[in-house]
């Protein structure tokens, strides 16, 4: 091991990398636990990549082959069921932890100067994570995925001016067909991972050069009252421990709560009762259901799309709108804005499942 280390050290300066990691410090305070959420999200993305590559070895996109290939994976391929369950559960947990990570960054005001670009790249990663979920949902080509995709793409088609174009781009035609499945497959395994990896690299680079942010209250403390720990090995070992816990949770979920494949998609069959999207789209889906058919001079669905578009843009550019955060002051308005958004998402999601 020493000879291997020396060989690597002579070529890529391992000593310098370790010295840099040891020099870097991580703040320790009451909210330090939230620092692990970004690392956990990264770990879950890595699981997605590994299990996704293994699934691609057997998966065959196409209206006549997709469902059968997934069935073959879970029933005939050795440990294929475990790989699929791990991929499915890690995908859901990935979105879950990205959600929590986003809100903890918001409430810690970690988007304040000079970290505006870190927030922007993080928001792009959040949108891409949702796109991963939407594009991957159709790939098993089962009944639920087929009709959920049809509903979701119909909503995209209601966007003013570009709606029809978006609909045809997503579906590769006018209806959800085998061509749609192939289109989603390409987006899911090639386009999204490529874009995500680039943005993720920029995001991690910004985090490294700017360091870990602390809430305004901690930042105002004198230097001697701030506690820190070395990034390596202290924080890294704790991060690995969190990853190990998450991996065990995924294993338990995969074994005891497997995802049902359900019947194969059939365009001629009626839509099943209670059709609904994945949980991370439920609050939007339920909101659209509650909006009347017409609001003022526009259709209800169009009003809902505009509502989410404007809300998303406000959330995206919040570092430039929350002026007080740059002065280390918590804005009451933006704090309650974030709290209200959390309550809204939770209540509408629960409501959607209860209905």
Protein topology:
Elements: H1 2-12, H2 14-23, E1 25-28, H3 36-56, H4 66-75, H5 80-107, H6 116-137, H7 143-157, H8 163-171, H9 178-210, H10 216-219, E2 227-230, H11 231-256, H12 282-290, E3 294-295, E4 298-299, H13 300-316, H14 318-321, H15 332-354
Antiparallel strand pairs: 1-2, 3-4
How would you explain this protein's 3D organization?
- The protein has 355 residues and is mainly α.
- The protein has a single domain, classed as Cytochrome Bc1 Complex, Chain C (Up-down Bundle).
- It is built from 15 helices and four strands.
- It has helices at 2-12, 14-23, 36-56, 66-75, 80-107, 116-137, 143-157, 163-171, 178-210, 216-219, 231-256, 282-290, 300-316, 318-321, 332-354, and strands spanning 25-28, 227-230, 294-295, 298-299.
- The protein has a two-stranded antiparallel ribbon.
- A hairpin with a 2-residue loop joins strand 3 (294-295) and strand 4.
- Helix 6 packs antiparallel against helix 9.
- The longest helix is centred in the middle third of the chain and has 33 residues, at 178-210.
- It is globular, with a radius of gyration of 23 Å.
- The N and C termini lie far apart (60 Å).
- The model has no long low-confidence stretch (mean pLDDT 91).
Give, in spatial order, the strands making up the sheet with the most strands.
1-2
> How many strands in all?
4
Oligomer status: single chain
Based on helices, strands and strand pairing, what is the structural class? Answer: mainly alpha
Helices and strands, in order, run as HHEHHHHHHHHEHHEEHHH
SS field, number of helical segments: 15
């Amino acid at each position: 091991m020493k000879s291997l280390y020396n060989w690597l050290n002579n070529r890529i300066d391992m000593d310098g990398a370790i010295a840099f990691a040891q020099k870097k410090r991580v703040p320790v305070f009451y909210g330090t636990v939230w620092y692990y959420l970004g690392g956990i999200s990264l770990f879950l993305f890595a699981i997605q990549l590994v299990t996704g590559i293994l699934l691609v070895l057997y998966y065959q996109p196409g209206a006549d082959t997709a469902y059968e290939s997934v069935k073959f994976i879970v029933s005939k391929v050795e440990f294929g069921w475990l790989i699929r369950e791990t991929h499915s559960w890690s995908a859901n947990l990935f979105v879950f932890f990205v959600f929590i990570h986003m809100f903890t960054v918001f409430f810690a005001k970690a988007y304040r100067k000079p970290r505006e670009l870190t927030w922007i790249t993080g928001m792009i990663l959040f949108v891409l994570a949702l796109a991963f979920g939407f594009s991957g949902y159709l790939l098993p080509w089962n009944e639920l995925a087929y009709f959920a995709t049809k509903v979701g793409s119909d909503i995209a088609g209601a966007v003013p001016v570009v709606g029809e174009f978006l609909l045809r781009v997503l579906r590769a035609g006018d209806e959800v067909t085998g061509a749609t499945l192939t289109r989603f497959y390409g987006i899911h395994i090639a386009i999204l991972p490529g874009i995500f990896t680039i943005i993720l690299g920029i995001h991690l680079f910004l985090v490294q050069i700017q360091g870990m942010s602390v809430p305004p209250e901690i930042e105002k403390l004198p230097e001697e009252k701030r506690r820190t720990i070395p990034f390596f090995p202290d924080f890294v070992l704790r991060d690995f421990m969190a990853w190990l816990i998450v991996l065990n949770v995924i294993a338990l979920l995969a074994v005891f709560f497997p995802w049902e494949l359900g019947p194969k998609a059939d365009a001629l069959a009626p839509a099943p009762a209670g059709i609904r999207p994945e949980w991370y789209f439920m609050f939007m889906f339920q909101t659209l259901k509650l909006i009347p058919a017409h609001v003022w001079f526009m259709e209800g669905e169009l009003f809902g799309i505009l509502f989410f578009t404007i809300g998303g843009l406000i959330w995206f550019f919040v570092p430039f709108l929350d002026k007080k955060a740059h002065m280390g002051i918590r804005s009451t308005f933006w704090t309650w804005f974030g709290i209200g958004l959390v309550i809204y998402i939770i209540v509408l999601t629960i409501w959607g499942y209860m209905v």
